[in-house]
Task: structure prediction
Amino acid sequence: MDDLKAKYLGLIAAASDEAALEDLRVQAIGKKGEISLMMRELGRMSPEERQMAGPALNALKDEITSALAAKKAALADAALDERLRGEWLDVTLPARNRRQGTIHPISQVTEEVTAIFAEMGFSVAEGPRIDSDWYNFDALNIPGHHPARAEMDTFYMARAAGDDRAPNVLRTHTSPVQIRAMEKMGAPLRVICPGGVYRADYDQTHTPMFHQVEGLALDRDISMANLKWVLEEFVKAYFEVDHVDLRFRASHFPFTEPSAEVDIRCSWEGGTLKVGEGDDWLEILGSGMVHPKVIAAGGIDPEVYQGFAFGMGIDRIAMLKYGIPDLRAFFDSDLRWLRHYGFAALDMPNLHGGLSR
Ligand code: DAH
Result:
């Protein structure tokens, strides 16, 4: 019996699956199993022999039964472990590629411009894209007959039949936000006003909707010299260069007197733009000293306050800095273009970390 016990416990321990265990069960304690057959022999034994062999056989049968059950449980555990290992999922892995979405160059450049002017004490003001003809034109010293109205290819909003007030317009520039900022905040004042503007125009460098940023600084003693310094600081920071040459060209805008267009020195060697060196000049903005009539339209006394203003195309300076050749692509929503020209979502531009890492 000791041999039988050793044999079956060994075989059970070595069994590799449930089917093998079942075979062993039948072989040992099934109806015609080795141990069952021995139990049948009991009847032919003497009472003394039976008293010895009976309990021993029963104990052996019990032991084999529980060894089978224990092994069966162990096999089931191992099978479950195996399955869990196979089905394991790392829930800390990102579900999708992190760079699915990118920041559009217009948003990026707006943030860059805002960061630079914030450093010089300018806050951000906004106004509506549908504005009255007064804010868009009259308040900026562009009266009804002025040629600038015709030049701007204005989109006019519809008026109800019989309503003969001047129609609202899709603002043609961000300059009307100058007036709203003056009304709201008074003087002294330092703001930039970024946002979308509209003109009926469409080619490689014009789209019916585009973006500008307006700047306005008013105080008792602000001069053209302050304008020049601020613009120089801006251009250096924006193009991330140590030195720039600016050229102020006399110009005319109804809302400034005197007015100047500002060019920066550049080169186009090999088709790529380099800012700060070379023999070419690139126009980047319009500016001037705010016309007294405009200051008065904003509700501020032009005898006390004076200052400068400027207006710049955000899309244009984005194209220049990031080498984007066609303005129309900005508004195509082509994902391949956005992946190529877009910016990582969590890199907020700031002057300390670098604007455009
Ligand atoms: N509003 C002008 C435009 O849309 C740009 C501009 C020029 C804005 C001179 C100004 C300025 O504030 O002083 O073309």
About this structure: The mean pLDDT is 91. The first strand starts at residue 123 and ends at 124.
